[in-house]
Amino acid sequence: ETGVTQSPTHLIKTRGQQVTLRCSSQSGHNTVSWYQQALGQGPQFIFQYYREEENGRGNFPPRFSGLQFPNYSSELNVNALELDDSALYLCASSLGGTATLEQFFGPGTRLTVL
Amino acid sequence: SQQGEEDPQALSIQEGENATMNCSYKTSINNLQWYRQNSGRGLVHLILIRSNEREKHSGRLRVTLDTSKKSSSLLITASRAADTASYFCATYEIQGAQKLVFGQGTRLTINP
Lengths: 114, 112
Hints:
The structure holds 2 protein chains of 2 kinds. Chain A is built from no helices and 11 strands. Chain A is an all-beta fold. The radius of gyration of chain A is 13 Å and the shape is globular. Chain B contains no helices and 11 strands. Chain B is mostly beta strands. Chains A and B meet through strand 4, strand 5, strand 6, strand 9 and strand 10 of A and strand 4, strand 5, strand 9 and strand 10 of B.
């Protein structure tokens, strides 16, 4: 197992609500990336944080936002939830600037929007 | 957007047989990685092959990369029931964020 943890494991929300997902990166890693994985699909990149700054964003609307804290843990916030937001949300930590380029994934948060 | 496309989408074989999965991608890459995912859980990194490499081995895994055809293959030899999982290829885009672009995956089932 990687040292990346995510909370909560599962979450059920209704349309229009807001949700916050949390991720603790592996020790020593300063970069956190968030991915959304719909059922039966591959993960899709949402955004990345490097040293507390957003460092790239995928094709997701502004109601998807994030934060990275000084200890490099991170939050993903989703406002005005829609049914299509139901998915597995994965965070991955890595060490920016290295040549290894391997990302270590957490177990994910399963979000269900009713 | 999905960069890689895995083929086949699903594969079912008997334990002990070899499993081969293929991946095609569209743009120039720095490297290509293969990940495994068990039952909708987190992804586990299997192997990374750089754009200047043609073949790489790790235990029972063998990965090839053909940059001229923009394709890669993952071979799992002597399969085991524990290899049952979804397998994803992901290409590394170096522009800006260290972003991995995943394919839709191959669902591998190993029958005892």
